[in-house]
Write a structure and sequence with these properties.
The chain is α+β, with helices and mostly antiparallel strands. It has 7 helices and 12 strands.
Amino acid sequence: MYFEKDETIFENKAEFKGFVIGCILGGNTLGLFGQMRTANFTGGHALSQKEYCKQKAKWASYLTRVRYDETDKYATFQTMTHPFYTKMRDHFYFGDRIAFDEHAMKCLTPMGVAMWYQNDGNYSHEKKNDSYYLPVIRLCSRFGDSKIENEYLQYWLQKRFGIRSQIHFSMIADKKYWLLRIRRQEEIEKFINLVKPWIVPCMKYKTPDAYEYKVSGMRRDSPAVFVGTKVH
């Protein structure tokens, strides 16, 4: 199916630009392949997240017509090519390396952060001791192999939105994968309040309001828990 171009979706191009930047941070692509003269904007998700993918396709139709497809496993969207996407590539693609520059971070919007989070973030609880689990937000990105890029993301998340985070890594196949982690109660609340207006219903499992506890022996006392939760 297709979403036809609709310039009424965003109030201005700056808002649309912030949306695209957040999607790229979360792993979507500005493609320029083969004999293409201008780039396009593409993304895909598991079929369980098709509602989110379809909504992104609709938002992306602000600039061009957008194709949306579903298979038995995946949902995808692909825009038409446009010079805007080609110019955006200059802020993310440097030869054979993908990164990001200051301009991209200055243009990131709250909606863009929400796309980044829904693409590549999660909300859960970490065990503090034998009695308590504490909430945590993990904000991954397509720059998991670079500590420096994550330090830069950390800097701009605080500078632009006042949200403090920690640099953390997970070991995957004997390799460090870098990410941001938000653990302080007030920072979690601030982050969720920032992104909440753009959380698509099928992605609400990434918020405290809809978090389903999967820890054995943990009792759900309220729909939203921002403080340490005691195991009963």
